[in-house]
Amino acid sequence: MGELPAPSRAAEGVRETGRLEAFSDGVFAIAITLLILEIRVPHLGEDAAAGELLGALGRLWPAYLAYATSFATILIMWINHHRNFRCVRRVSHPLFILNGLLLLCITFVPFPTALLTEYLQRPAQAVAAAVYSGTFVVTAVIFNLLWHHVARSPRLLDPRVNPQFLRRTTRGYAVAPLVYLVAFGLGFLSAALSLAVCLALAVFFALPSPVSEIIDD
Amino acid sequence: MGELPAPSRAAEGVRETGRLEAFSDGVFAIAITLLILEIRVPHLGEDAAAGELLGALGRLWPAYLAYATSFATILIMWINHHRNFRCVRRVSHPLFILNGLLLLCITFVPFPTALLTEYLQRPAQAVAAAVYSGTFVVTAVIFNLLWHHVARSPRLLDPRVNPQFLRRTTRGYAVAPLVYLVAFGLGFLSAALSLAVCLALAVFFALPSPVSEIIDD
Amino acid sequence: MGELPAPSRAAEGVRETGRLEAFSDGVFAIAITLLILEIRVPHLGEDAAAGELLGALGRLWPAYLAYATSFATILIMWINHHRNFRCVRRVSHPLFILNGLLLLCITFVPFPTALLTEYLQRPAQAVAAAVYSGTFVVTAVIFNLLWHHVARSPRLLDPRVNPQFLRRTTRGYAVAPLVYLVAFGLGFLSAALSLAVCLALAVFFALPSPVSEIIDD
Amino acid sequence: MGELPAPSRAAEGVRETGRLEAFSDGVFAIAITLLILEIRVPHLGEDAAAGELLGALGRLWPAYLAYATSFATILIMWINHHRNFRCVRRVSHPLFILNGLLLLCITFVPFPTALLTEYLQRPAQAVAAAVYSGTFVVTAVIFNLLWHHVARSPRLLDPRVNPQFLRRTTRGYAVAPLVYLVAFGLGFLSAALSLAVCLALAVFFALPSPVSEIIDD
To answer: How near does any CA of chain A get to the CA of B16, in Å?
Structure first.
């Protein structure tokens, strides 16, 4: 007998979408900004020379790489979350739940990022890489569930959405969990390689799309 | 002689509601995202094997469970906060104060979450469980006060609100403090059991409602 | 030759106000939520009994008191920031600068809060209390400067603002820096007394106002 | 074959701009508020006298100075980000990417701030100053790229933008990376001097502009 918002009219639906998006934007913005807290200033002796500090900063490269990858991944997911909701004209109960699960994954990202930073060059790196890419496998699956829920529901989907855009997006999203699975597998060879695949996927999704029209006129 | 906003016209009231909601959304979004800072990366010896890290990550299950429960609880409270304010057409002085007390509880949640994470499997677990569920007892009581203030004030309540929705919401909210009291009591037997009741209540509130229309047409 | 936004028309001015408020709301919401990070879970021996944890939690009362006081103070300042901007119809260069200085003070609050928490019961408490109440003296002075800049500028001030509201607000705000000065002085006797005065002022500002109409009809 | 939002009509473009700005505002607000976490309460002996605490707080001046400089710099960048987007009527793919890179720099600022705080008075100060000012060199360059992309694209630029405003902004922004390069060079003499140049530039950009009209009427 739990109670959740439901749109009673198109106007109400639009208003609900706006606030769901605003709350989600807040969570994305905070998660992406908290990542920096995992890059820790190296603590050296009081009289450490410039060269020592430079060396210590250089040895932080796993932290920079994990930071950049997680930043790019959350940013691309925010951009796509955005685009998906431009296609939505009403909210539904499962949309609230699926969006909540997606935000659970997004807020979780700082933990595997910190884990990978700490273990990227150590014997236990495979476990850290598996947790990192595994988090993105789950996130990408939920992203697909959210998108399918919207794309297949005539009640939620804005009828003006460009059908070519719909098809390409559905196809593009289906690829993401598979690539993260590859990153998951590669992590057992090398955590750095696994991380590189995750970064490459984010860069790939940042490339311009051949279908630029979301809404048909 | 303190001074607080008061609506002088419907239009002003609507504007005030919007900003009260936006500030509250910000606080909810930040509190829910800060929870991850309480899951700490395990620090092992430089040469720790993969199996060791896996074991250490496994022993963090109290952290994951407390994280998921607090996340689900704050998310459900945000969704309900949202729904409640869809019924509000004007703000009042007590509404600002009650909402401020509610936000005080929400921002407090990361502390009992961290406490429960640390003591869930240790002899002092009953105290940690009592603080955790006790926080939610207080939060749920304030939620009821806020809702009753709105539901019983013809000046604040949108007259188009579906009466069946009002009745069911009032009844549903009355149950929450009682369930958290049960969780409080069970904590003296087992902190994990107490936590499970809190998680179950969040899941229950996430189920679809039979009354889906908030606003009558 | 620095460059800052300037309203060229009423419509542009309104839009600028909205975004200045939204950014400020974000800063207030984050600062108020970060306060909880200063209440640290007590670390006891692995087999600490329930009574020990209860005692350790009890000894954290300076943290709870400082948390509640800073939370209430930031909340009241946000409510008043809000109310002030309901009287503003255009932005100006000094308004941006004064608002920036106010946000600098608000984001600073977690530091004196943590300082007071740590030293409230120790010999150096007078210094911690002076920094804490001193931060609020400066904040309250900037609040007055911001309010005077708006209230005395016919270009910025909405002409519909209730003159009685203006007078009472001006008078009420003038009191705040004086009370914080008293708290500053009392800190040299007892940090807890100084903190109590700060908390009392926040509660006083939360009382309902006899002048409830901001905008005349 | 990545996919990114594209405006299909002016109305859609406006909506996209709004959400891009809201997300960016969130990131700026969080980054500016997280800076305070780098000022750490000094931990002294239980019976430390007031004078000792006062001395310890005084020795934190590098933290205060770095905090104030980073706060002022992010605030000025937010104000300018704001102003730039008042000139934008549509979004484009490169705008999303350039804005993402800018946010990457903004969220990174707490790290060089903490680094400079720790090493400002130590032998390795030149490295810390180089990382700090170097971060702002990169940020300022990206700011210029973002501005040029808008200012040179008739499709993105609002045609009503005051041409004198455009010229002065372009000129003013071109100066920033050069000044940060000077700060970078000075850091090899003294980190405090380098920091002072960064602070001075933020103050300079906060001065009122002779061209106050962004949009022509």
So the answer is: 16
